[in-house]
Amino acid sequence: MILSRRAALTILLAGTALAACSSTPPKVYTLTTAPGTAVGGRPVTASVALVDIPKYLDRPQIVRRSGPNQLGVDEFERWGEPLANMVQRVLAGDLTARLPSGSVVTTSRTLSGDEALTVELALGRFDPDADGTVVLEAQWRVRRKAGGRAKTEATRITRRPADDSIAAEVRAMSDALGELADRIAQGMR
After folding, report:
1. Counting beta carbons within 10 angstroms of the beta carbon of residue 85, is it exposed (0 to 12), middle (13 to 18) or buried (19 or more)?
2. How far apart (Å, rounded) are the C-alpha atoms in residues 20 and 145?
3. Which residues face 140 on adjacent strands?
4. Assigned CATH for 28-187
5. Per-residue pLDDT, 146
6. On the chain, which terminus has fewer CB atoms closer than 10 Å, C or N?
7. DSSP-assigned states of every residue in 50-91
8. What is the pTM of this model?
């Protein structure tokens, strides 16, 4: 079968376009610590235990809701590390900024065994709605090493991104996590 020049050129251009799409590097994002105000009191040592996240978020791609029962996943918008690990690391940083001066907050990967408090976190949701509003639903427990009762609390935090970009959504997610750290730090006093 002999192809016309036009058909051959069309096939070549389509192949080139397909190759260009498949070689587009993904954009990679990370959560960051958010500024906060330190609570008063004596310094504490604490650890952020492993963070539990919903299975639909346990993937390299950033997940966004495109409807009440539909999730959107873009292959080229990715997290720089597993989301649960990132939340754990950033929450530890956020708590360090919010607890009294001299406090030390570690993650379960860097435990010394001397931490007086342990924070356990379970996220029910941590993703943007179809309109871009970030929703963070969390339950946390603070356990004291020296005994005493563990305190469990839950909250729902929403943050509206500055614009429709993925970078703004990720910033809003970081801010929501910072607000969660504010609430956890208040309860650790």
Report:
1. middle
2. 55
3. 121, 153
4. 3.40.50.10610
5. 77
6. N
7. EEE--GGG-SSEEEEEEETTEEEEEEEEEESS-HHHHHHHHH
8. 0.85
pLDDT in tens, 44-67: 999 998 899 999 999 999 999 998
Q: What is the DSSP letter of 162?
A: S
CA angle 93, 96, 97 (to 5 degrees): 90
The confidence score (pLDDT) of residue 5 equals 60
CA 147-41-188 angle, to 5 degrees, is 45
Q: Tell me, what DSSP letter sits at residue 108?
A: G
Rounded distance between C-alpha atoms, residue 115 and residue 2, angstroms: 75
What is the C-alpha to C-alpha distance for residues 181 and 153, in angstroms, rounded to an integer?
A: 12
Q: Calculate mean pLDDT across residues 138-163.
A: 91
- Token duo for residue 186: 């208040």
Tens of pLDDT, residues 95-118: 999 999 999 888 876 666 778 899
Q: What is the pLDDT of residue 181?
A: 97
State the Cα–Cα distance between residues 118 and 172, nearest whole angstrom.
Answer: 26
